[in-house]
Amino acid sequence: MYCPACTSAVLSPAPNNCPGIDFTCPACSAAYQLKSRRPPLRNRIVDAGYEAMIQAIRSEHVPNLFLLQYSPLWSVVNLLIIPSFFLTESAVERRKPLSSKARRSGWVGCNILLDSIPADGRIFVVSNGVAVRPSTVREQYARIRPLSALKPEMRGWTLDVLNVVRKLGQREISLSQVYDFEESLQVIHPNNRNIRAKIRQQMQILRDLGLLAFEDRGRYRVLS
Q1: Which of 43, 119, 122, 170 is 20 to 30 A distant from 101 in Cα terms?
Q2: Model confidence over 158-175: pLDDT tens digits?
């Protein structure tokens, strides 16, 4: 496997005692974790401890995530990468604590919710058994890399609004259409009491990042 984040043609196995990291790039030091399964990739991806994941997100120590689906004959069916900066608190679901009979009684794990991650952050390396050109993968990664410059608490908001924009599935959208998701955004961000103002702020950030274009008062064009 090559590095999607730079021009390196290889990734190296991570050294021993690197929990949560399976590969690193010898050129840019990007870290990668690999999760693989035979059944199709679903919305919930089982991950490690909830508190550890939240702390890693807040301290920006989350690795890039490879999700691999393989066939019964051990060939790659799908492989996608989720850049580390797309893994936000909104995309992490707290699981129930382990029962008192479990070996690690009380331990709390988490799930990664793929539908809480905008499509921009789910980049296919292999799709239905066909490899995507490395140059295409790297172009897609580079296009969204500016989001990594945002602080985690701001980036979470930006990606939640971007996810709303993508789910609308339209080339031309209005601010009022995004306002329709005010209630669901309030659930994700319960401590914010001015959701519409925050939406307007994030739409401006998405415009500045080149993901939206301002057309007219309250109207935007979604850039592919």
Answers
A1: 43
A2: 999 999 999 999 999 999
